[in-house]
Amino acid sequence: MIDPAAYLRQSPETAARFARIKERPVILEVRGLTKSFPTGDRMHTVFEGLDLDIHRREFITVIGPSGCGKSTFLRIAAGLDEATGGVIRLNGKEVTGPGPDRGMVFQGYTLFPWLTVKANVMFGLKLKGQSTITAEENARTWIHMVGLGNFENAYPHQLSGGMKQRVAIARALANEPRILIMDEPFGALDAQTRTRMQGYLLQIWRKVDITILFITHDLDEAIHLSDRIVVLGTHPGGLREIIENPVPRPRSAAQFPSPEFLAVKARLEALIHPPASADIDEPDFLPMARMTRVADEVE
Ligand SMILES: Nc1ncnc2c1ncn2[C@@H]1O[C@H](COP(=O)(O)OP(=O)(O)OP(=O)(O)O)[C@@H](O)[C@H]1O
Ligand SMILES: [Mg+2]
Q1: 45: CA distance to ligand 1 center in Å?
Q2: pTM of whole model > 0.85?
Q3: Which one of the ligands is nearest to 65 CA?
């Protein structure tokens, strides 16, 4: 049996970890963030009055039903889209456009197919004005960090999906951003590769001074990775809850069946998939199409 309140209970170690996180400076400050889109003659408000403080080296995951505005929020934080109201500050400075202080990794593979792994990672560094020798040295460091030292001269088409995403992470981190913004980066990978990538990401996060803002649909992934989980909703859109994840660190896949893990998962399920309202649940109201002959009854 899952104790429904167990997601709120933190061990003394976890409580102390959260106290330490809150003492760190705020890297990303979200205040009253609102986003609306015109739809026909009306405005559709995706979220309104979003407030959030993300501390240095925190791992924050945003989760919520499709269409609740997760990508929209990340795009605004990345400076790729404008808010309708409110403000995001990165390191105290208002975000008004893209910048090298943010590294991005998306679900789709975004490497340049005509460049090798090393050249892909060097690309941004050379744009920043690094000499070829320095850019090459830095690129190598990051390619090793993601475990692809033997593939620096390979082209993207010679890599698996997971390897491509590791290059994308290396490329983003090589620019030394303050925050790594990831929109469902493992969404296109098979389950096994995805679990491995989560392990890599946690290892990298432990070694590097980086704050991570991560979007996923996958509840297990959110619980496995994050310090706090931000739950967004629809109708009305906006912040539902912020959960301080009680699952102890360091994390491993062995924790998936633990009571804390299951309690957080149950809470997330309840927030994201609330029980259907009675009038929809009533079978008489559902349109039923009969696709078999009456004699073909099955159990
Ligand atoms: N450029 C746009 N113009 C109009 N509406 C938009 C635009 N971009 C997003 N929207 C709307 O904003 C809402 C949130 O979209 P968004 O892509 O942020 O959701 P999401 O939570 O990332 O969904 P998913 O989980 O499916 O990726 C949706 O209703 C979408 O239709
Ligand atoms: Mg999205």
Answers
A1: 10
A2: yes
A3: 1
